[in-house]
Design brief:
- By secondary structure, the chain is mainly α.
- Helices cover about 60% and strands about 0% of the residues.
- The protein has four helices and no strands.
- The longest helix has 15 residues.
């Protein structure tokens, strides 16, 4: 995440969590990019609130059905 690379984060996330049968990878990358732009500003470290917001920021990806 510290490199500002949503595609890399998306790939890494899909390596460590159970992968659903169907996933909108482009949507996941888009939501990760939004999250990173909003919460991971250059020179700032993530805090507990940021960590708690992360899973909630991915909920729109699962709602595409």
């Amino acid at each position: 995440m510290d490199r500002g690379d949503p595609l890399g984060v998306s790939d890494a996330l899909l390596e460590v969590v159970p992968r659903p049968d169907e996933i909108d990878e482009r949507g996941l990358e888009r939501e990760l990019g939004r999250f990173m732009a909003r919460h991971l500003l250059a020179g700032t470290a993530p805090d507990v609130q940021t960590t708690c917001r992360f899973p909630r920021s991915l909920e729109p990806v699962g709602e595409s059905e």
